[in-house]
Write a structure and sequence with these properties.
single chain; 239 residues; alpha/beta; Rossmann fold; six-stranded parallel beta sheet; 8 strands
């Protein structure tokens, strides 16, 4: 058990992409490679290009973003064709270029040192998680994926986030009030809330890809951090 403020925490459930790892950056590089293979080049970094789109269209889906990309550059492919190329590139990049965000390993090991299980609750599928586990920076880290106490992916439930299924399964027999959640976006935080986890138990983790929605992210969590040292300090002070 460990304390988080005045609360007793018996389990930590964390999102993966954009929360613990830099995989959103890796996906951005994959977009650039995919575009180059189709003879196109972004006028700026993919991160800025994507953020420009979603800041103007906050309710759009990822498929809408792909269609926007196709239309902007006149690529002459369908959404599914582009996505197939992107998925192939992403799988290779994720398995070689993924790494933890600075300080993420410290949080994982601190939790486990305190006897509190730390695991994944992610919208990624098993294949994507297994690919990421092979990245040298992950595999040779202090917290390789096999050291997680449990993991729940979208393949383990009927409905992915923002439904609460992933977090309900991640909690198991642990009460919601004793579960700490790490998330980088409103969709994931909504999933935790729908699973009954109190807002005060949700830690929002800054990621540049969600900068356009930062106001809503701050409103959806009990604590917001820009880097993991802030969470580590809070945990150390509470314990």
């Amino acid at each position: 058990m460990m304390n988080f403020g005045k609360k007793q925490i018996h389990k930590v459930a964390s999102d993966l992409d954009g929360t613990l790892t830099n995989s959103l950056d890796v996906y951005a590089w994959s977009h650039n490679i995919t575009l180059a293979s189709l003879g196109a080049k972004l006028p700026c970094r993919e991160k800025e290009f994507r953020m420009q789109f979603f800041s103007k269209n906050p309710n759009k889906r990822f498929r809408d973003y792909i269609q926007h990309t196709i239309d902007t550059f006149g690529l002459g492919v369908t959404i599914d064709e582009y996505k197939a190329l992107l998925d192939k590139t992403s799988q290779q990049m994720i398995s070689t270029q993924s790494e933890y965000k600075c300080g993420a390993e410290d949080i994982i090991k601190f939790s486990q040192m305190m006897g509190v299980p730390f695991g994944l609750a992610t919208n990624s599928g098993n294949e994507a998680v297994n690919n990421m586990a092979q990245a040298p920076a992950i595999k040779n880290s202090r917290a390789p994926f096999e050291s997680f106490d449990y993991r729940v992916t979208r393949d383990d439930v009927q409905r992915k986030k923002p439904a609460g299924d992933i977090y309900r399964k991640a909690m198991g027999s642990t009460k919601a009030i004793h579960t700490l959640v790490l998330e980088d976006n409103v969709k994931g935080m909504t999933a935790a809330l729908r699973a009954g986890i109190p807002k005060s138990n949700i830690v929002g983790v800054y990621d540049a890809y969600n900068k356009h929605d930062i106001v809503n992210i701050r409103k959806s969590c009990g604590m917001f951090i820009e880097h993991f040292d802030q969470l580590k300090d809070a945990l150390e002070k509470s314990n």
